[in-house]
């Protein structure tokens, strides 16, 4: 058995090759190969999903979007497609730490009764107070999956209340006195248009986007750090949540890939097989761990750089 780690396209091509050669002889059907998602490429896909969902308009015209932070911080190598993985990851990590620090200062100010606006002041307050209660407050307020949906529902209810007030005024008129706009307003289409238009004005979109970004970015950063430290248990937990994140971000191929891996892990893998898979997916490279597919990327790059017989990019 040969474990083949790579990206989603490698897994797809290997699966298609095995299906195409299913009637061939034993050596030619590649039955001895097993395709696996490489953790490094999963991390790259997660960073790409975070960048695509939170990049915003070009030029940083939306407050709270990553393109605005990239322009302010001077990160010229970062784009919405996350072509430079390391630069994109550093931007996500930087913005996430800033959001968490701002959240800590905001919640600590409410508990202290005065404004805490600097990191040294926050450290001084935490030093003499119960920091565990502050962290729990942050988790409940900012990292609740239902908070954004609850805020949108409250905005819809306020917009609906405004609609009912104006609708009652129109319904009090006689039908002959109602204008064309009044007739459209009390219709179902007019109701939906009014609620949708006024619901946006009632919502705090900056807070909603920041909460959604922190949830996605925390997952991307934790997966990368867990892979570097060799924390196998945290990787397994992150993969379960990544399935839903990939599905919501439109990366359905990676969502299906991780879902198949999770199904196989629960239903068909033995303990020995799981041990072999997880110990081969991440390897130790001195002081840290890394994905084996990342090592293969470096090997391929070294080969392409060293083997260039005609000194052209085509032969390379």
Structure description:
- This protein is mainly alpha-helical.
- The protein has two domains: 2-142 and 205-303, no CATH class; 147-202, no CATH class.
- The chain has 14 helices and four strands.
- Strands 1-2 form a two-stranded parallel sheet.
- β1 (2-6), α1 (8-20) and β2 form a beta-alpha-beta unit.
- α2 (39-54) runs antiparallel to α10.
- The longest helix has 28 residues, at 85-112.
- The radius of gyration is 26 Å and the shape is globular.
- 21% of the residues are buried.
- The mean pLDDT is 84.
Offer a quick outline of the entry.
The protein has 14 helices and four strands. The protein has 316 residues and is mainly alpha-helical. The strands form two sheets. The chain has a two-stranded parallel sheet.
Tell me the layout of helices and strands.
Blueprint: E1 2-6, H1 8-20, E2 33-37, H2 39-54, H3 66-73, H4 85-112, H5 119-127, H6 131-142, H7 147-171, H8 180-185, H9 188-202, H10 205-229, H11 232-249, H12 252-267, H13 271-281, E3 282-284, E4 289-291, H14 292-306
Parallel strand pairs: 1-2
Antiparallel strand pairs: 3-4
Helix pairs in contact: 2-4, 2-10, 2-11, 4-5, 4-6, 4-10, 7-9, 10-11, 11-12
